[in-house]
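User: I'm preparing a small set of examples for a lab meeting where we compare how different chains pack in three dimensions. I only have the primary sequence for this one, and I'd like the structure in token form so I can line it up with the others. Please keep the answer compact; I'll paste it straight into my notes.
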Amino acid sequence: MTHGMRTDTHTQYLEERRDWRDTATRYALLPLRIFLGVTFIYAGLDKLTDSAFMKASGSGSIGDMMRTVRDSSAIPALVDLSLKSPVGFGYAIAFGELAVGIGTLIGLLGRLAALGGALISLSLWLTVSWASDPYYYGNDLAYLMAWTPLVLAGTSIFSVDSALRARRKQRAGAYR
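Assistant: Understood. Below is the structure token output for the 176-residue chain.
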């Protein structure tokens, strides 16, 4: 009898551990999602509100920054493309960062938002921070890697995406 109770207790213990691991797994990407969402919103707003940044030339301008990194970038042609309209490129990056940050933070089209963040980070790594030596001093590569789990997993909890999924399941169940 004691042996049977011990097995039941052990089984219950294992189930509780599995439940805890499942819960931890569901929440594992939430801190990363919050960090990246807030950071990209801040980066976009910072660019839009910096009067020096949104200029074709001058100290602190997007144009001067792109001209400075042109010869040391991995893809100079990408920098040349940005230099055709540096202010337009600056606005595109800023609004892109805002869209990615908001989408990631609220979990709306989470995988698409994360893919956008990864592409922005990749383009900045191949241009602006490519010459960082050693490579790990440049933060854009780390951001690129941070976006990867969200591209793969999406925004599973506390998100518009999960609310929409639940609503679709509920409606599908109502029609059965």
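A couple of notes for your slides: The chain has eight helices and no strands. The radius of gyration is 23 Å.

User: Perfect, thanks.
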